[in-house]
Amino acid sequence: GQSLEQPSEVTAVEGAIVQINCTYQTSGFYGLSWYQQHDGGAPTFLSYNALDGLEETGRFSSFLSRSDSYGYLLLQELQMKDSASYFCANIMDTGRRALTFGSGTRLQVQP
Amino acid sequence: EAGVTQFPSHSVIEKGQTVTLRCDPISGHDNLYWYRRVMGKEIKFLLHFVKESKQDESGMPNNRFLAERTGGTYSTLKVQPAELEDSGVYFCASSQSHILYGYTFGSGTRLTVV
């Protein structure tokens, strides 16, 4: 089976840096993705890590450590519009392309 | 390019009725997926089409759910008869062949069964 665990809520102030952690237990693992979802909107793809290390895309970075079964999403220079839910998701293998999602972390950015 | 389109955006039906959800993927995306989020829990996989073929339907909860993708274009998900526990948000997503590009999700259909 698979499970991905994330904190349920995180609060931070505008301009700050926040890290959202994701630990996983899977019977197979191919890579870790991150998605952002604003209330009532579509989950939006942010990043994908297939290999260990840091991937940077603008203000957002994602990190993966396969040996620790752990990853995180780092958001820098937080803006009010970053208030949303963030999901980590795993692809078990390329034979099955279904995503398994964590339960999501609700980020609240305060002024 | 146009995104993934789903309709209706909301549907309220009575227990025992039938509802059909529709998804139009991004043009050229052979892969189409259905997911569901129930009661604020995690988003769960339902099934995966490659063109018109069902590649993986391991997430379909029971035989009250029927998905089709005629001609490998749009897809429908029918729930018949609907039960209270079917309430939730149903998402459709499509993707190119390489997973590095991620999946593009639609905004979902919020289904409420009363």
Please characterize this protein's 3D structure.
The complex is a heterodimer of chains A (111) and B (114). Chain A is globular. Chain A is mainly β. Chain A is built from no helices and 11 strands. Chain B contains no helices and 11 strands. The interface between A and B is medium-sized, with 25 and 28 residues.
Give a nutshell description of this structure:
With 111 residues, chain A is an all-beta fold. Chain A is 0% helix and 63% strand.
Structural topology:
The complex is a heterodimer of chains A (111) and B (114).
Chain A: E1 2-5, E2 9-13, E3 18-26, E4 31-37, E5 44-49, E6 53-57, E7 60-65, E8 70-75, E9 84-93, E10 96-101, E11 105-110
Parallel strand pairs in A: 2-11
Antiparallel strand pairs in A: 1-3, 3-8, 4-5, 4-9, 6-7, 7-8, 9-10, 9-11
Chain B: E1 5-7, E2 10-13, E3 19-24, E4 31-37, E5 43-50, E6 53-56, E7 65-68, E8 75-79, E9 88-95, E10 104-105, E11 109-113
Q: Which residues of chain A sit in consecutive blocks of at least 5 with pLDDT less than 50? A: none
Percent helix of chain A: under 10%
- The DSSP helix count of chain B reads 0
The mean pLDDT of chain A is 91
Shape field of chain B: globular
**Mean pLDDT across all amino acids of chain B:** 92
Q: Would you list the SSEs of chain B in sequence order as H and E?
A: EEEEEEEEEEE
For the report, how would you describe the main beta sheet of chain A? 6 strands, mixed
Structural class of chain A: mainly beta
Label the structural class of chain B.
Answer: mainly beta
Please give the oligomerization state of what you see.
heterodimer
